[in-house]
Amino acid sequence: MLSYSHSNIHQLSDSLIRMERPIISIITPVLNAEKQIFTFLKAVLRQRYPREKYEVIIVDNGSTDETLQKVRSFKEVILLERTDVQNPYAARNKGIQYANGELLVLLDVNCVPLPHWLESGVKQLQHPGVDLAGGQVSFTFSEDETLGEWYDSLLFVDMEDLIKRGQSCAGGNLFFKRKVLNTIGAFPENHRSGMDLYWTKKATKAGFNLVYEPEAEVRYPARKFKPLLKKVFRVGTGQPKVWLDNDMHPLKLILLMLYQFVPPGTGKLKEKIRRRGKEQMYDYLLPLWGIHYLQKMVLSLGWAKGFFRYYTSKL
Questions:
Q1: Long-range contact list for 198-204, CB < 8 A, 24+ apart?
Q2: 184, exposed or middle or buried, with CB in 10 Å at 0-12, 13-18, 19+?
Q3: Which parts of the sequence belong to the Glycosyltransferase 2-like domain (predicted)?
Q4: How far apart, in whole angstroms, are the C-alpha atoms of residue 127 and residue 4?
């Protein structure tokens, strides 16, 4: 009769668990990311999830710096190129076409995943009835912690709020099953921003279940004031397509554009500070309110551009 020691039993148990874990494909678009790529890849390759169970696919979107050379120094990383269309959705589509995983993960190069990130996101997808999962995005700050960075950390990439309120989310930390892709198709490639919200909303409208997973956490550097406003405008240009394709009346969008020029209250800021911020942020409520008002107007200008583009593209 065979006998096993406790160590043998634990080794056998671990082996069985590893065998049951699905194959994962992590897909990341990059463009001139030489400053981030080493830190990013080291974090991705040091996950607690069994290394032989996931592949890492980097899709270069036309870098002109040292990004390609640095990626090639990681022999276990798959490097692809997509340069005919320069936006992250085109690059993601290229990576998705190549991917072998049962589960697919989209991760932005600016995000540094914590060691339990991959395991937590995959575990969520293994729950019955869960088809997509958006992970938590926590912000890091520069040494001086500017007001622009604080505002960015409060109001943007709030995955929990996006998922629970709008049943859509950003694509920089997203886990999903291959059947979602097979049903709703690839990302649209004719816009620079907003198509991750469009794509995830399309998935939930098709009946797929999108949930929030706080343990699938990544760290993301908060933007300072000028890059923040540029991001707001760019994202704003992509949002009208999401809404208009989901049956929003054009007049409602026009009224929303105009409403952004009405000075806001402080309630939303206070709620965000309570949920996502630091206690000392209350002492800077007035300048944060000023940034909030300015970004609302910049967002409205982005919406106006996206609204115009949406209808001119149909002519």
A1: 198/168, 198/238, 198/241, 198/242, 198/245, 199/171, 200/132, 200/134, 200/167, 200/168, 200/169, 200/171, 200/174, 201/166, 201/167, 201/168, 201/242, 201/246, 203/131, 203/132, 203/176, 204/132, 204/167, 204/168
A2: middle
A3: 25-181
A4: 32
Confidence band (pLDDT; 50, 70, 90) for 315? Answer: low
For residues 178-199, give the mean pLDDT: 88
Distances in whole angstroms, Cα of residue 257 to Cα of each of 62, 176, 251? 34, 33, 10
**Residue 178 pLDDT more than 90?**
yes
Which among 103, 79, 106 has a CA at the least distance from the CA of 92?
A: 106
Phi, psi of 28 (to 5 degrees): -135, 120
Take residue 310 and report the two structure tokens written for it: 């949406």
Give the residue carrying structure tokens 């678009």: 29
Question: Edge-to-edge, what's the strand order for the sheet holding 24-30?
Answer: 78-81, 54-60, 24-30, 103-107, 173-177, 132-140, 210-221, 112-113
Q: What are the CA-CA distances from residue 295 to residues 21, 88, 180, 267, 281 (Å)?
A: 44, 24, 34, 16, 18
Q: Write the pLDDT tens digit of every residue in 222-233.
A: 999 999 999 899
Class (C level, CATH) for 20-312: alpha beta
Structure tokens at 172: 């920089």
**Contact indicator for 190, 86 with CB cutoff of 8 Å:** no
Q: Please tell me whether the overall predicted TM-score, pTM, comes out greater than 0.90 for this model.
A: no
Are the beta carbons of 123 and 82 closer than 8 angstroms?
no
Token pair, residue 94, equals: 């290229």
SS3 135: strand
Residue percentage of the chain with pLDDT more than 90: 71
Distance CA 121, CA 118 (A): 5
List, in sequence order, the alpha helices (H) in 66-206: 67-72, 88-98, 117-125, 147-155, 159-166, 178-184, 195-205
